[in-house]
Amino acid sequence: MTDSPAPSEDSPDRPSRWRRLSAAARRAALFPVTGIDYLYRTGQAYRHFTLPILNGAIGDQLAARHDPRAIAFSLRRYGQDVAVADLHLPPAPNKTVVFLHGLMGDELIWQAGFPDAPRYGPLLQREAGVQCLYVRYNSGLHISENGEQLNQLLTELVTAYPEATRELVLIGHSMGGLVIRSAGYYGTHPELASSDPSAQPAAPLSGPGSEGPEAPNAQPTARPEAPWLARLKSVFLLGVPNEGSFLEQNSHLTSVVLRKVNVAPTRLLSDLIDQRSNGIKDLRHALLVAQDWQHPHANDVLFAPRTVVPPLPGVSYHVLVGSLLKTAGSALDHYFGDGLVGGGSAIGRLFGDPARPADTNIRTRVFTQQHHGSLLSNPEVYAYLREWVRSPAPPEAPTGTPEDLTGTTEASARTTEAPAGTTQAPTGAPEAPAGTTEASTGTTEAPTGS
């Protein structure tokens, strides 16, 4: 058996050189048309991002001049803002999941996308038996401003639908996770909420010109915590810059250096850089409290003031971290992480409080070879969410002395030393799939707040 000879240059089965050149020329001529068509179809598919991107970039300026393009903080349904009273939530299921997008995002990132990519909201509602709600907000505003509004919205939600919100779960991506943490802070410190008419004014700064009338022996009025905090069971933080974004830190440093040069071109460039929104600027050090960005030294390159916002006691936190690398734990991963949020920032030293309550419960998981956006549509991330959203609440952390409850949850090395008194994962905990890194069975747990 012999192989059939390849068609020669003059064979009728082989296109002539002229025909091949003509076909290549036609493809080249049509490339601008096909390219424009592709861009148009892509733009139509993602045109809903136009307004969120504009708000993320200059949303604070839009809101200041009451521009109709400024996004209002609201729950969303069928592409429209919906008031809490108009949700008409049924009493069952009694576990409600609230999703918050990140910078320049909107509620559709949880609901729509490529056909082969899981979208967490609809899948969780169908497979985990929960009610899913979606928040859209102006990501150009200060994180603390959106945090206060989320605190108010959740208070209104649990008041209007006590049966449907017996258990509350919050899921935030990127800036959305910081908004969740800010809302928790204002929920536990209602006297600091600037939007509350009964809130006490902030204490004046010391220094010249700070004198003013003070009521002798004035004491702030104690008010109860926000009611939604008692119903909050779990918080999932996906790619959240808990210690700030290296991109914003470098942007701020560049602006400062250009301004220090102090010539007309560099001042112009510095002014242009400084036009970015307050929400982006807050990402420099993950400022969650209004007093921090109002501080006179808020723009210091080093040692800018930052209020510690620890995890809420009695709430299970799940810190999900992306890494561009095949293996996590290196210095590159610590700084660059998923390309937008460094691995060290996402871990956030577990929110910075060395004396957290004993019932603090934090789990971390690192998903390798994932960028910041793919955390929103990854089957392994969804499997983790589904398992833990539908699982029963974990057992309460054991009591004991601080020495008995010490340990580490720092995931920079992605290992955990099992501390005495550590609560084991409940039955049905998800196994670590390929491409993820967890301590022990794939979970770094800190029920002790270490």
TrEMBL record:
Keyword list, A-Z: Hydrolase
Annotated ranges, domain AB hydrolase-1: 97-309
Gene3D superfamilies from the UniProt entry: alpha/beta hydrolase
Biased composition (Low complexity): 193-206, 415-450
GO molecular function: hydrolase activity
Region annotated Disordered, chain positions: 191-222, 393-450
Protein name: Alpha/beta fold hydrolase
Organism encoding this protein: Hymenobacter persicinus
